Structure formats: C-alpha cells, structure tokens
Amino acid sequence: MLEKSLSTNSDVIIFDLEDSVPPAPASKQAARDRLEGFLRERSQLLQPERVAIRLNRHGTPFFSEDISLALRYPQIRTLVLPKIHSQGDLDEVSQFVNLHWKSNSRADTAPLDIVASVESAKAMFNLGAISSWTSECGLYGGRLSALLFAAEDYCADTGIIRTPSRRELLYTRSKVAITAKAFGLQAIDMVDFNIVSNASTSHTFHERRELGFTGKQAIHPAQVDTIHSTFVPTEKEILRAARILHNMEKAHASNRGAIGLSLEGGGQEMIDAPMIKQAGNVIRIAKQAGLTIPDIKE
C-alpha cells in the first residue's frame, strides 16, 4: 500500500498510524517501522505539500513515538490529529510538536500544518474555540489549517444512526464547513465507504461542494478522480460566472450597480455585488484547477 501511494493523484496522501493499524503495541511499532523505511527510501519521490500523517491520539502510549517519527522527516508537512475535543487538546499536541522539533533540529522553518479531526459531541460544542486556536509556542508549535469531519466516530460518540440519505448529519456537516470558513480554514468532509465511482457516488460528492466543503477524504484510489471532478466548477457554472463578470464590468463602466442576466429558459436574473463575489470565486477555483475560462465578447 505504501508503494501504491506514489502513483495516486490525490492532492494529499495521508499515512495512517491510527485506526487502520491494530491497537497492539507490536502492531503500532511495526507500522511505524514500515513507514519510516518507506520515507527513508522514497524521500526523493515525495512532495512535502502532498504528505500527511495521521497520528494516534495524544494521551495514548503511541502518540509520542508517532510524532517523533513525523518530525524526523521534512517530507511530512501535515499532521492529522484524531479526536480533537477542545483547544486544550491542540495545546498539548503543540507542546509535543515544539519539543520534538527542537530535539530533532529540523532545518526547515515553515510551520507544520495541523488538521483537527472533529469526532465527538464535545468537539462540535467547542468548534468555534477549536477553529480559532493558535499555538502558544509560536512558529514551531504548528498552525491549524483545516477541520476534518470524521462521521463514523461522531456517530459512535453521539448515538446518531447513519443512513444513506445523510440527513441526520446535515446540521453537523454544515456547521463544520461554515465554522472552518469563518476562521480561514479548509473544510474536509467525511469518507464514503462506497468505493465504486458511479453516478450515485458522484451525486454525493457534489453535495459536499454544495455545502461549502473544500475537499473530502478518500479511502480508495478509485474515488480520487470523482472527487477531483466534483470539487471544481462545471462548464456551465464557469460560463455563467464569466458572463456575470464581463457584464458587470460593462455595467460599472456605465455607472450601474446591477444588471439583468438572461436565463436559458427565458427571463432575467438580477445580478448585484454579492453575486459578483460568487462569480469571482468560481473563476478563481477554475483557474487554480487549470480549467478553460471562456472569453466573453458580448
């Protein structure tokens, strides 16, 4: 599996030392040893911005060894922290990061990115405080970059029953996405256990973007292409955005603050300042994804 990670086209590869490894100490150590060997042998093939490691929760007997491993290798730029329930949890992890960073004398100076995994009712209650966290250790304590929603753990903690509709998680997921945006963080949605890339799966992935998520977790390489295609604007959305920006530029030149945009089925849609911002976001994301932006002439 470690070798296969080199060929995946996902934005980030997460090497998991937590739930995918049996809880026995020998199993945890064996997983660390395999990962360390891989990192040592394949270091030239790994892009640091694409490498993350999911640690065992702080407070477990495995955490210290996990983070020591992570900080020995500059290829690892992101730590995924499970079961973050409060700012205090992040403070504890940050102190470990600071301590081990100094003891391992890392030469790089860019702070580590921290992804906080939301997995409990307590985490949801403290979500605003978690999202506003900054390290008291400064540069070497890490910086919070994203919230990640772990649906299965959350349901286990709260007693919520998972259904195919996901309606029971709509409030929770919306709150995670909105809170992340309020604090300038990435919002990463839950995994889907259906690894077959079909129309149904594509629909559920589109739902993530509609809720405001910036990405989602994949548990199988077969999901990656579908995720990529559903987290970028469609051709229709890009065309509409380009038309809005073009027509509003003309309107502003004529001292007008709003326009009517012709709809496909007839009629007009009123366009004003907030919709300009939305259109700008669509074009920005499309450009980042390397998509074609139509040249509007009329």
UniProtKB/TrEMBL annotation:
- Which parts of the sequence belong to the HpcH/HpaI aldolase/citrate lyase domain? 1-221
Q: Where does substrate bind?
A: R54, E119
Give the matching InterPro entries.
Aldolase/citrate-lyase_domain, Citrate_lyase_beta/mcl1/mcl2, Pyrv/PenolPyrv_kinase-like_dom, Pyrv_kinase-like_dom_sf
Cofactor(s) demanded: Mg(2+)
Q: Which UniProt keywords apply?
A: Magnesium, Metal-binding
What is a single Pfam family found in this protein's UniProt entry? HpcH_HpaI
The lineage's top-level taxon is: Eukaryota
Q: Extract one GO molecular function annotation from the record.
A: magnesium ion binding
Q: Cite a single GO BP annotation.
A: oxaloacetate metabolic process
Provide the residue positions that the database annotates as binding Mg(2+). Answer: E119, D153
| Record's protein name | HpcH/HpaI aldolase/citrate lyase domain-containing protein
